[in-house]
Amino acid sequence: MASWAEWQSPGAASGVQEPVRGSRPLPDAYRAWRVIKPGWWWTGDDRLHSILMKDYVWHPDEPASGDVRTCGIYSCRDVIRSKEEYWYSVGSASLLFGKVKIWGEVVEHEAGYRSQFGRIVSLDYGDPELLEKFRKIYRVNQVPAEPSASKPSLKLSMIPEESSWFGSMLQR
After folding, report:
1. Cα–Cα distance between 80 and 83 in angstroms, integer?
2. What integer is the mean pLDDT of 65-77?
């Protein structure tokens, strides 16, 4: 391992509090999550699971957590976009890839981080149908609502083509 550093963000010792603005900036981190699909002998669920610890569930409304001395929340420095880029063989498992916010006690490794807490920030790569489903469940990558209907908007259909300068430009 090239370098080891530990960060302690405010509130890490006392619990789950996310870092406050002005504390040491924490790095962007990336990881993969396993999707458990229903099969003949098992049921699926609507939650993302850790890759190595299949029983560890990432819940939408609470941060993932782990003791950095024994396991912690693993993440990578570099963006992961596919199974081929992921360092651990997962066979035919369905994976989603994205960004995670890490905080608490954070140990830096050569390829990434092991943190006390993590929260899914975005789901960016993977099967499009699964991405759509899990983005809704975890409320990430949501497209902002359309501008208010009370604001007037100019539509081309409202401009008479034959009587306006704009209409004459369209006909050229």
Report:
1. 8
2. 91
Can you give the pTM of this predicted structure?
0.69
Tokens matching residue 26: 């924490």
pLDDT at residue 60, rounded to an integer: 95
Pairing of strands 112-126, 64-65: antiparallel
Which residues does 141 contact at the CB level (< 8 Å), separation at least 6? 122, 123, 124, 131, 135
Where do the structural domains in the chain lie, given as residue ranges?
6-170
Bridge partners (DSSP) listed for residue 120: 100
Kindly report the average pLDDT of the chain as a whole number. Answer: 75
- In this structure, are residues 98 and 127 in contact, taking their beta carbons and an 8 Å threshold? no
What's the token pair of residue 91?
């066979």
- Distance separating alpha carbons of residues 155 and 148, to the nearest angstrom: 15
Structure tokens at 93: 């498992």
* 138 token code pair: 């975890």
Query: CA 130, CA 43: separation in Å to the nearest integer?
Result: 16
